[in-house]
């Protein structure tokens, strides 16, 4: 068993001696600044369970306790991509070279009891986990593992789009559900846009609900052909649409891009970004508003008279 399988120590625990070997008392005496662990990362930052302090609105103390507990659960979901990034940084930088164990796989096993195969899975999946977290999802390592074939065939963006499409479909995202989708997906083109992947997965999920087994075809719109919202290929049925001008296509593409952005840009996500990095997120939000104002000004035009 490894770090992500069991929280029971494999050897008898030893008394902690703290930094510099003198315990926290020695650190407090020697250091001018004590660095505190971020809320939600250690047991000490999680409140002890207790009965409600009252009814109705939370008190300031309860608000802080609630935030700490939520942070603790968020850290649980982030654990695998934080570990994967850490492992890749150590491996690529050969940071373990002075540890006395030159072989990286052996070092990781001796230190954390993580098998080599698990270590490489974590390294392969952390970027997907990080990108999905930026979209507001909380993937599990076992779920990201099911997207490995998509990453190999079409790249990480396609894998993120597959997960995002399944999550937005409204059902519960599980490793089993993702495995079923990936197994039935047609080969994805590495040039397929997220919108096209969304459409393919949406068709597949619809077919699954209807009891069908036929997978949709993975095809991108041909150059000059008509396209539906978000770049979706138009149906072959019905009259052929006339070739659009560059201006008309730009207008349609802009709408598609805005719709895709609206799917991932939520108030909850913005609030989390502002809490994480107020200055950078605030500047980004300001620029988004400026761009929207520019687009609103461009779109505020009068249509020419008919006929």
Describe this structure in words.
By secondary structure, this protein is mainly α. It has twelve helices and no strands. Helix 2 packs across helix 4 (116-134), helix 6 crosses helix 7 and helix 7 crosses helix 9. The chain is globular. Residues 206-245 are annotated as: Disordered. Residues 211-239 have a biased composition (Low complexity). Keywords: Plasmid.
Helix tally equals 12
The H/E string reads: HHHHHHHHHHHH
Rg from alpha-carbon coordinates? 25 Å
Taking pLDDT < 50 over at least 5 consecutive residues as the criterion, the unreliable ranges are: 1-32, 219-242
Overall strand count: 0
Q: Measure the end-to-end span.
A: 76 Å
User: What form results from the Cα inertia axes?
Assistant: globular
How much is the average pLDDT? 75
Strand-pairing-aware structural class: mainly alpha
SS strand fraction: under 5%
Instruction: Give the fraction of residues assigned to helices.
Output: 55-70%
Give short descriptive properties of this protein.
about 300 residues; mainly alpha; globular
Brief overview, please?
It contains twelve helices and no strands. It is mainly alpha-helical. The N terminus is likely disordered.
Summarize the topology.
Elements: H1 23-30, H2 60-93, H3 104-112, H4 116-134, H5 141-145, H6 148-154, H7 156-168, H8 175-184, H9 194-209, H10 246-264, H11 267-276, H12 278-299
Helix pairs in contact: 2-4, 4-7, 6-7, 7-9, 11-12
